[in-house]
Amino acid sequence: MHDFGYDVADYKDVDPVFGSLGDFDSLVEAAHTRGIDVLLDLVPCHTSIEHPWFREHPDWYIWRDEPNNWLSAFGGSAWSPLDGRYYLHSFYPEQPDLDWRNPEVVAAMQDVLRFWLERGAAGYRVDAIDRLLKDPQLRDDPPAAEPFGLPLSKEEAQLSLAHSRNAPDTGEALARIRAAVGERFMVGEVYLPARRWQPYLDAFDAVFAFELLHAAWDAEELRTAIAETTRERGAAWVLSNHDFGRLVTRFGADNARAAALLLLTLPGTAFLYQGDEIGQADGPGGERRYDRAGRDRFRHPMQWDSSPGGGFTGGEPWLPLVDPSQVNVEAQRDDPASTLTLVRELIRLRRSLPREFRLLDAADGVVAYARGDYLIAVNTTGEPLAVPRGAELVLETEAGVLEGDVLAAHGAAITGG
Ligand code: NOJ
Predict the structure, then answer these.
(1) Which of 100, 188, 274, 289 has the most CB atoms lying inside 10 A of its own CB?
(2) Could you tell me if the CB of 3 is within 6 A of ligand 1?
(3) Ligand 1: which of 190, 192, 243 to mutate, judged by most atoms within 8 Å of the beta carbon?
(4) Is the Cβ atom of 244 under 6 angstroms away from ligand 1?
(5) How far is ligand 1, taken at its centre, from the CA of residue 150, in Å?
(6) Is residue 29 classed as helix, strand or coil in its secondary structure?
């Protein structure tokens, strides 16, 4: 738990704080009986420093006599000293990077990939995959020549990041991952702008769209991110997750429903972070019980009912519940005006949206697009605005937000015909 589970000490077991392999099996079975598939989040590019491999196979990791200028994602050098040498860690020092140029590492990880598929996993979210292969000579990152295209720390933005990640032959290592996974689904967490997705899309089914995730709730920014990303096929849209917090906190309670409508009507795969279906907020700031980088506040348990444990647990949760008496699934399940009902209707509707996608011209402050005959309009502002619309109203964020062609402040609507 140096990184809330992203520091794996055994790839073929469940940490006892979460349960057992038997619990995993029951979870998969219970999900299957409800028509739900389970994807696992796999970190192939680094282990925990506590993984036996780090002691037993030091040659599976990346070492140097002296650090180069590569930076850790969490700040400072990506190298830490050990026994007179330095090992590479693209993230926390407790997360040493594996050397994917070593065939033994590839074989060991292929074995892990097969293990969970045989146990019933439907596929993987493959973590931090742009860090899989680095420059074989471990050369310094040169100074930045052009903007990276996604937010970076001040230190990182000075460098081109050309050697510390995303090596030109990354596609070959990705193909080894695909070979072990067969036809099952894989989405890659690739911290690169969409125009650099190609090798990842060749191997994976989808790639997380970080341009959208980083856009502010501003029509111009959202439109640019969507335009850049829809040039590629294979976008996995995401507006919130365990690293960036939930919709209500990120965009404001007023905009959270419109954000969910946008997320669930874009063309491609959509990832809705647990809690967002009911408009759950992030926890209080300043909490650093598990994560030094301050992300605990995004990771409070799901609120199923109004009991103190939120129906999530009768025991002691890893973090307290935020506000189960105010926001919970039970209270929203049968309420036609609830966020949960809206999200369910959106999920039902998205299955019938045609693939075809076109961004539409619209007033400042409005994001509008067509999916075949359906028109989607989102008002990102606090003022009513005229929007493009079709003859019939299909769904709106709240009853009455679309009147004629005027969309109320913070509203979003789908029309057709
Ligand atoms: C990406 C994960 O989303 C993040 O939570 C984690 O800290 C890093 N990978 C390091 O594994």
Answers:
(1) 188
(2) yes
(3) 243
(4) no
(5) 16
(6) helix
Pocket lining: 369 vs ligand 1, CB cutoff 6 Å: no
Query: H or E segment at 262?
Result: helix 256-263
Q: What is the mean pLDDT of the chain?
A: 97
Residue 209 CA, ligand 1 centroid: distance in Å: 16
- The pLDDT, as a whole number, for residue 321 is 93
> Residue 231 has what pLDDT?
94
Q: Residue 80 has what pLDDT?
A: 98
pLDDT at position 17, please? 85
Q: Is 74 in the pocket of ligand 1 (CB under 6 A)?
A: no
Those residues whose C-beta lies under 8 Å from the C-beta of residue 159, and which sit 6 or more positions away, are 69, 71, 141, 142, 143, 144
408 CA distance to ligand 1 centroid (A)?
38
Q: What residues are labeled active site?
A: 127, 183
The proportion of the chain whose per-residue pLDDT surpasses 70, expressed as a percent, equals 100
pLDDT attached to residue 290: 87
Write the DSSP symbol of residue 255.
G
Q: Which protein residue's CA is at the shortest distance from atom 6 of ligand 1?
A: 6
**Nearest C-alpha to atom 11 of ligand 1 is from which residue?**
6
Residue 63 alpha carbon to ligand 1 centre in Å: 22
The owner of tokens 């690169």 is 192
DSSP string for residues in 157-222: HTB--SSSS--TTHHHHHHHHHHHHTTSEEEE---S-GGG-HHHHHHSSEEE-HHHHH--S-HHHH
Assigned token pair, 25: 């099996």
Ligand 1 within 6 A of CB of 135:
no
State which H helix or E strand residue 64 sits in: strand 63-64
Token pair 């997750």 is at which residue? 241
pLDDT tens digits for range 93-125:
999 999 999 999 999 999 999 999 999 999 999
Per-residue DSSP letters for 107-123? HHHHHHHHHHHHTT--E
Q: Is the CB of 243 under 6 A from ligand 1?
A: yes
What pLDDT is stored for residue 289 in this prediction?
Answer: 85
CB 251 within 8 A of CB 217: yes
Query: In this predicted structure, what is the pLDDT of residue 391?
Result: 96
